[in-house]
Structure formats: structure tokens, C-alpha cells
């Protein structure tokens, strides 16, 4: 079975496995206060060109999202995102379980725009009963989005301005950040993201690491006592060095960007090949997630050899499925899929 379900089906990049093996018997202190974590923090600060940023390593994306969001919001406040937002549809109510409402609104191609933030702010504060409604205080976006789309630099800057005008914080979920940054349609750098977001995270789980995410807090007002919140929310790993070693290796010699570019190359081969075969796409994704409209009869054939993510019924005879490439996807598997899609 050849799997295109998602981008974390393989274990980890061989260089990371080697680094973990080589340092296996080295004694360090725990909870992310070791020399490897410190070196990884410095590497991330350097690539973000933000020496004042705090960098924290958490074990996974859900832990990162709920820890960041719950640390920012007061009990009566909520987080604004698009209806397709990961925290709204794929985290089993984790944010609500921390006591905060997810305020989900319709987006465009999985994205939120600056005008919507201003509109939601006005709707809340102009409502005579606003004290009876969860107050929007934080904006959550992801890049890439759940539909594989990405924000442009001008869109992100406009969202930043809207958040400032509305006295709201901005949090960017970067679970697949590497794939967004290496998309041929991307015009942003990781430095641009650091400049415009109060907090964001660099995904490792889906981009070559065995597990782990690097939360980068650029706003000093959000930095105090964050480690207390990590511990309280169950995101602090006793053997924190395992996270530091991985991110140190990922940001050594540009490995993170190199393996992300490979995933994008595989996605482009797949996308262009499917176009040539006449397939249509549910979303125009420029990243490693490709949402394809496929006849149900063809899916029955594919099920014998391939695994993919079923999304929804498109019409009486077609379904939307997601094919996902990764840092480890083999070109021969992509070519084989295209051959069988004929």
C-alpha cells in the first residue's frame, strides 16, 4: 500500500535519527533546559532575525495550539478563525475544553481577511449585549491553511494592521509552515512571519521531525510565565533534549527548507500530471495538499494500491479526496499514482 494520506506517515529524517543516536547516552538536564534546546532556540532566533523572541518546544500541534491560546486569553475571551480552521474542525474541542470559545466564520479558500477581523470586532462592540457574548481577542490563522492555500505577505501585513486597530493578538499555526514557505507561489519569509505575528509555531511533526513543534513568541507581553502554562497543559516533555536535538538538526545547513522543497517538487509533479489527465481540483492549492475531484469508480480501483484522505462527496458520481506529499515522498510513487489515475 502506497500512502498519500498525510505528511507524517514516515518516522523521521535520517539525519535526525543519527543525531538522536549519537547523543543518546549524553546526560543533560530535563524539561528543555539543556544545551541542545538552547542551541536550537538560537538557530531559530537567527533564521527569524529576532533575538528577543522566546522559543519553546512542545510535543505536538494540538498541545501547541491549546497552550498558546489558553495562555493569551482571559476567561471571557474567544479566538476568531475560519470555519475550516484546524482548531475548529480537527482538535476535538480542545480549545473549548480550556474554557475559550472558537468564533468560527466563513473564509475564502480557507483564509481569513483583514476586513473580516474589523467587521467581527465592530459586531461585538456595537452589540448592546456584548457583555453576554464571548469577546474576540485573538485571531488564529494557519499557513498553509486546511485547504492547502497560503497567505501572501500583503495579506498577512493587512491582518496585522487589523489586529492592531482592534487591539487583538495574532497567532499563526505553522504545522506545515515549511511547505508554505517553499511553495513557488509564496512571497513571504519566516522573518516576515516573525515580524507580523505575536506568536507562531514552526511545525516539526509534519516536516521531517519525529515529533514536536517550536513555538516562537515575539510579543514580550505574551512571554511571561509561558513555561508554567506548557507544564499545566501537559505539553512539557521531561526528556526535552529530544525536541531540541531535532530542531537543531532541522535548522542546520537549511535542512528544514531543503526537505520542504522536496515535498513541493513532488506535489507539483502530481498536480501538473493530474491536470494533464483532465482532473479538476476542489481547491487551488499551491502546497503539498492536493484536493482532487475523482470519479467514485476510479476510487474503487485506487483503493487496491493507495491510501488517501477522503474529504467529501462532490456529486452523485464524484468525491473530493486529498493526496498529500511529504519530505519523504518518493517520485516513483507519484509517477505510479499518475499512471494509475489514467
Structure notes:
- The protein is α/β, with parallel strands linked by helices and 342 residues long.
- The chain has two domains: 91 residues, Aspartate Aminotransferase, domain 1; 241 residues, Type I PLP-dependent aspartate aminotransferase-like (Major domain) (Aspartate Aminotransferase, domain 2, 3-Layer(aba) Sandwich).
- The chain contains 14 helices and 13 strands.
- A seven-stranded mixed beta sheet has the order 2-8-7-6-5-3-4, with helices on both faces. Strands 9-10-13-12 form a four-stranded antiparallel beta sheet.
- Helix 1 packs across helix 11, helix 2 runs parallel beside helix 11 and helix 12 runs parallel beside helix 14.
- The longest helix has 22 residues.
- The model has no long low-confidence stretch (mean pLDDT 97).
Short description:
With 342 residues, the protein is an alpha/beta fold.
Pick out its properties.
alpha/beta; 4-stranded antiparallel sheet; globular; Aspartate Aminotransferase, domain 2; single chain; 342 residues; 14 helices; Aspartate Aminotransferase, domain 1; 2 domains
State the low-pLDDT regions, or none.
Answer: none
Helix/strand structural class: alpha/beta
CATH topology of the largest domain: Aspartate Aminotransferase, domain 2
Tally the beta strands: 13
What does the main sheet amount to?
7 strands, mixed
Integer average pLDDT: 97
Radius of gyration: 20 Å
Shape: globular
The helix count comes to 14
CATH architecture of the largest domain: 3-Layer(aba) Sandwich
Strand order of the largest sheet: 2-8-7-6-5-3-4
- What is the H-and-E element order? EHHEHEHHEHEHEHHEEHHHEEHEEEH
Q: Determine the N-to-C terminus distance.
A: 19 Å
Number of domains: 2
Estimate what percentage of residues fall within beta strands.
15-25%
The CATH homologous superfamily of the largest domain is called Type I PLP-dependent aspartate aminotransferase-like (Major domain)
Residue share in helix? 25-40%
CATH class of the largest domain: Alpha Beta
Amino acid at each position: 500500500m502506497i500512502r498519500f494520506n498525510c505528511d507524517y506517515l514516515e518516522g523521521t529524517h535520517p539525519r535526525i535519527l543519527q543525531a538522536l543516536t549519537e547523543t543518546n547516552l549524553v546526560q543533560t538536564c530535563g524539561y528543555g533546559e539543556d544545551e541542545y534546546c538552547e542551541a536550537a532556540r538560537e538557530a531559530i532566533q537567527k533564521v527569524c532575525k529576532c533575538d528577543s523572541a522566546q522559543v519553546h518546544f512542545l510535543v505536538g500541534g494540538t498541545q501547541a495550539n491549546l497552550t498558546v491560546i489558553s495562555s493569551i486569553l482571559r476567561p471571557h475571551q474567544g479566538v476568531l478563525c475560519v470555519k475550516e480552521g484546524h482548531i475548529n474542525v480537527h482538535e476535538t474541542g480542545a480549545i473549548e475544553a480550556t474554557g475559550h470559545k472558537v468564533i468560527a466564520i466563513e473564509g475564502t479558500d480557507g483564509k481569513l481577511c483583514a476586513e473580516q477581523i474589523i467587521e467581527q470586532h465592530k459586531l461585538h462592540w456595537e452589540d448592546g449585549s456584548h457583555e453576554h457574548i464571548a469577546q474576540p481577542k485573538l485571531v488564529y490563522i494557519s499557513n498553509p491553511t486546511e485547504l492547502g492555500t497560503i497567505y501572501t505577505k500583503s495579506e498577512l501585513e493587512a491582518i496585522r494592521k487589523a489586529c492592531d486597530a482592534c487591539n487583538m493578538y495574532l497567532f499563526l499555526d505553522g504545522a506545515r509552515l515549511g511547505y508554505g514557505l517553499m511553495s513557488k507561489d509564496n512571497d513571504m519569509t519566516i522573518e516576515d512571519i516573525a515580524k507580523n505575528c505575536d506568536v507562531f509555531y514552526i511545525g516539526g511533526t509534519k516536516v521531517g521531525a519525529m515529533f514536536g513543534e517550536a513555538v516562537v513568541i515575539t510579543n514580550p507581553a505574551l512571554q511571561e510565565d509561558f513555561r508554567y502554562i506548557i507544564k499545566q497543559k501537559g505539553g512539557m516533555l521531561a526528556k526535552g533534549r529530544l525536541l531540541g536535538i531535532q530542531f537543531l538538526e532541522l535548522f542546520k545547513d537549511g535542512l528544514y527548507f531543503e526537505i520542504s522543497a522536496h515535498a513541493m517538487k513532488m506535489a507539483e509533479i502530481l498536480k501538473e500530471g493530474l491536470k494533464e489527465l483532465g482532473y479538476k481540483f476542489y481547491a487551488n492549492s499551491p502546497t503539498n495538499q492536493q484536493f482532487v475531484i475523482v470519479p467514485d469508480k476510479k476510487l474503487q480501483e485506487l483503493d487496491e494500491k493507495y491510501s488517501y484522505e477522503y474529504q467529501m462527496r462532490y456529486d452523485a458520481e464524484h468525491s473530493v479526496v486529498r493526496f498529500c506529499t511529504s519530505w519523504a515522498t518518493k517520485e516513483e510513487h507519484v509517477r505510479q499514482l499518475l499512471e494509475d489515475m489514467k
